Amino acid sequence: MIYPTRRAVLLAASGALVALLVAALAADRWYLALAWPLAIAVLVTVDALRTRGNVALDLALPSSAFVGEERIAEASVKLASGARHAELAFDRSPLVHIPDEGRTTLELTEEGGKASLPMSMLRRGTARLDRFWLRWPGPLGLVWRQREVVRDDRVHILPDLRPAQRHGIRLFERFAVDGSIKQLLRGEGSDFDAMVEFRSGMDRRSIDWKSSARATKLLARLYHAEKNNQICFAIDCGRQMSEPVAGMARVDHMIGAALLTGWLALRIGDRVAVSAFDSRPRLSSGFVAGPRAFSELQRLAAAVDYGTDETNFTFALTELNGRLHRRSLVILFTEITDLISARFLLTTLRLMIRTHLVLVVMLRDEELESLATATPQSAEDVTRAITATSILRERQEVIVELRRLGVDVLEAGHHDIAPRIAEAYLEIKQRDRL
């Protein structure tokens, strides 16, 4: 496709001024005014002919990336027309953000030109980048020649595994309860391990008095933490959880943290399941076990969609409670925004904690905290601060009520939510609360 540049349009428009001058100075020679548009038309035609030539476009896009990650797309262009620069435009995708609406300019030499574009992954899913547009000007700068390139590029945006990569091994070595690594709290747990001689510093309640009497020396029972516990991640994917925090949806922060805890649980020997819900249950998986099941856990986490409905805690958690037939650790990832939905959550958790251990995880609302503590400069700032303070106060009231019921509550910022959840899970294991 060929179309005129801004320069060609301005030159053509200036022909009206030339025609006016000719009419004013030499009305009997009006035909001289036609020379200007004819000259512009000839120049545009010549410029369009000189833009012809072979075009070679090469794009290197990442095949996969983590949500919230920034990756680089490499573009390489070579033109035979001798143009000094070209412009490249990417097709838009709601899952990927490219600066300047996906447009970039490439400076061309005889060897061609290259450009790098940062791509920010906004949401999980498969980003389809099917079409690209390349245009370059003629030597006179009067026309653009544009070519559409149709490709079949896909960028698979996966749940964020960076928390598991950064913190997984460190936490496993620090808190591991597997037999290959020494426990920090040796002697605690629920499964009998061995009978050892009592040493200073050991818990006196672990002494086996009958065995000690037979052996004529103090013997103590050594335990290790029980394996094969059930860990269920209950992920709220409702409207509030789809709101962005630090450029990424709340639910994506939670999924990244859940994957870190899930990786540790599978390594330790526990069984893991995933449940997602908004107005109704959306995903209900069975339990998986073993380190090799982590890929299945990733697939389940990637299937958690972004909801637009209000969360129905009563429906979702009651259904989950009915599917759990033995005591389990339920890690509930959610967000408290109003007292009405919080009452339904409290009512449902009163029933669930009779059998299961519940850990409620929430992201600290740093935006609300900044509004509440900011120095007001206008009446609108005062109104925002009062509203933010009221919301934070209601949130704390719900947290206090949850803890009063016996529910563990973890509230942390998005940058440290993953290791905090993993440490809370490992502490539960070490204290044998399951």
Task: Give a structural overview.
This protein has 4 domains: 2-49; 55-158, Immunoglobulin-like (Sandwich); 162-180 and 227-430, Rossmann fold (3-Layer(aba) Sandwich), CATH 3.40.50; 191-224, no CATH class. The model is unreliable at 177-189 (pLDDT under 50). It has 13 helices and 21 strands. Helices cover 37% and strands 29% of the residues. The protein has 434 residues and is α+β, with helices and mostly antiparallel strands. Strands 13, 16, 17, 18, 19, 20 and 21 form a 7-stranded mixed beta sheet that branches. Strands 1, 3, 5, 7, 9 and 10 form a 6-stranded mixed beta sheet that branches. The protein has helices spanning 6-13, 15-25, 35-49, 99-102, 162-175, 209-215, 250-268, 294-302, 313-323, 339-352, 366-373, 379-405, 417-430, and strands at 2-4, 55-60, 64-66, 70-79, 85-90, 96-97, 103-107, 113-121, 125-137, 143-158, 191-197, 219-224, 230-236, 244-245, 248-249, 271-277, 281-284, 288-289, 328-333, 357-363, 408-412. The protein is elongated.
Question: Can you summarize this structure?
Answer:
By secondary structure, the protein is an alpha+beta fold. The protein has helices at 6-13, 15-25, 35-49, 99-102, 162-175, 209-215, 250-268, 294-302, 313-323, 339-352, 366-373, 379-405, 417-430, and strands at residues 2-4, 55-60, 64-66, 70-79, 85-90, 96-97, 103-107, 113-121, 125-137, 143-158, 191-197, 219-224, 230-236, 244-245, 248-249, 271-277, 281-284, 288-289, 328-333, 357-363, 408-412. The strands form five sheets. Strands 13, 16, 17, 18, 19, 20 and 21 form a seven-stranded mixed sheet that branches.
